[in-house]
Design a protein that fits this description.
The chain has about 450 residues and is mostly helical. It contains 20 helices and 4 strands. The protein has a two-stranded antiparallel ribbon.
Length: about 450
């Protein structure tokens, strides 16, 4: 053993040298505890959507604090939603200070990715460096397309926003299937069929995102997530930065650079002195990998001339920028088509107090919280009954059940006020025409049996 290694507790230098973790794991363990606690909180809020009166916190809290939900919803619908402005501002400031810590500590979908990764034991460095760097631009391209859609009054947020994706999958996929199997376990073979008119496509989308972890850890966060891209743009120069000083690049130690290969976001280039702070999710795993304890997080501006403190900037190449702009131009006609005014089919009955179809489809983020909250489950998601613009928006299905007169669960559960707020039992709920009832005399027992019924 060398004197240096004996003095600092480094791994043995020589043929038997191997990687060892250091004692700097307290923050990593704290992050894991916070992740699990917040995942449990999210699950509690999801379940509380079914009985909002028992919730200590509003079930809409996660979506109301999603900056992308706030900005794209208000941009597409051209409305101001005060309830989501505050949450947006809080996490914008949070990101400017701590970088993409939301992705590493708070996001429930990110926690599910980490749990899936631990279950699959996916190697960290499955993709080549060049492939990884090119794919990183994907999420920024997706973000640009979503912003372009919002500017042209088309709501595309619902497709890939992580919080919306997770809630919708659980509301119209996991919960109905679990309920169906609980009520009638013999239906296990038919769970892949439609349930109350809603297919399991949202659940399949979540399953694909989780399965992508088998390719590389946090594949979705690295290359797809538009919310991560938004936080990444805000994290170009965060107040709390990852710094590397005194790094020996594992010289003399027979091990690979664990801070590089072990980064689940691929935020550390081959030169361990450099850091992509806009990609770093503050997981603090690198601190436990480093045998030299050269990695730290500190509040310090980037000093010119410090080779060991440089950041790798988030900058699109000219080719990538032109490709992004070209995609926006190509998708512009699609945005115009999806947001064009169309007559609502007579068979589609929107939730109470929804008056303007265009505003509703722009303001609705397809999170399915109203579906989860509806006590009679008469609210279900549509497919293409109202065209592309109305895809996965909620509608009342009278054949399923009726709308309770004194209920306002859908209004309370809507995080973006797409379903206008109204009080419980408010009479104006019924002063708005929601649809036209058609009497089928051949099925009405008052006509067929000549008797009084009055159920309607």
């Amino acid at each position: 053993m060398t004197k240096a290694s004996a003095g600092k507790g480094l791994p043995v230098v020589g043929q038997d040298a191997h990687y060892q973790t250091t004692s700097k794991v307290s923050l990593r363990n704290a992050r894991r505890a916070v992740q699990l606690a917040l995942l449990a909180l999210w699950l509690a809020l999801f379940l509380a959507t079914r009985d909002q009166s028992q919730a200590l916190l509003p079930p809409t809290l996660p979506l109301e604090t999603d900056p992308l939900v706030a900005l794209l919803t208000m941009g597409a619908a051209r409305v101001l939603v005060p309830s989501i402005v505050v949450g947006c501002a809080v996490f914008v400031v949070f990101t400017l200070v701590f970088g993409r810590a939301f992705c590493g500590w708070i996001c429930p979908l990110g926690t599910l990715f980490d749990l899936t990764n631990r279950a699959l034991k996916t190697p960290e460095d499955r993709l080549a460096t060049e492939t990884h760097q090119k794919l990183q631009y994907g999420k920024y391209l997706i973000l640009v397309v979503m912003v372009a859609g919002a500017l042209m009054s088309a709501q595309w947020l619902y497709v890939l926003d992580p919080l919306v994706l997770l809630f919708r999958a659980c509301a119209v996929g996991v919960w109905p299937v679990a309920t169906m199997l609980h009520d009638d376990p013999e239906q296990l073979g038919s769970v892949w069929q439609s349930f109350h008119g809603v297919t399991l496509a949202p659940l399949a989308l979540l399953a694909v995102a989780l399965a992508a972890v088998a390719i590389t850890p946090r594949f979705y966060c690295r290359y797809v997530c538009p919310l991560g891209a938004f936080f990444g743009l805000l994290s170009r120069a965060p107040l709390l930065r990852r710094r590397v000083t005194g790094c020996d690049a594992c010289v003399g130690v027979q091990t690979e650079k664990q801070c590089v290969s072990g980064c689940r976001m691929g935020a550390v280039p081959n030169n361990p002195h450099l850091t992509q702070n806009h990609e770093c999710i503050r997981c603090f795993s690198g601190r436990s990998f480093c045998h030299n304890q050269a990695i730290r997080f500190e509040v310090e501006p980037n000093k010119a001339g410090r080779q060991d403190a440089e950041d790798v900037p988030a900058a699109l190449s000219r080719r990538a920028f032109l490709a992004t702009a070209g995609a926006g131009v190509v998708l512009a006609p699609m945005a115009a088509m999806s947001s064009s005014t169309r007559a609502l089919p007579a068979s589609v009955v929107r939730p109470p107090r929804v008056l303007d179809e265009d505003t509703f489809t722009d303001q609705c983020i397809r999170c399915a919280m109203c579906v989860q909250a509806c006590p009679t489950q008469t609210l279900q998601l549509l497919h293409l009954e109202t065209g592309v613009a109305g895809f996965w928006t909620p509608a009342i299905t009278p054949a399923m059940a009726g709308c309770i007169p004194e209920c306002n669960a859908c209004s309370v559960a809507c995080p973006t006020d797409a379903i206008p707020d109204f009080q419980k039992g408010e009479q104006s709920k019924w002063l708005t025409k929601m649809g036209t009832a058609v009497l089928e005399k051949g099925r009405c027992i008052s006509h067929t049996e000549n008797t009084a019924c009055g159920k309607c």
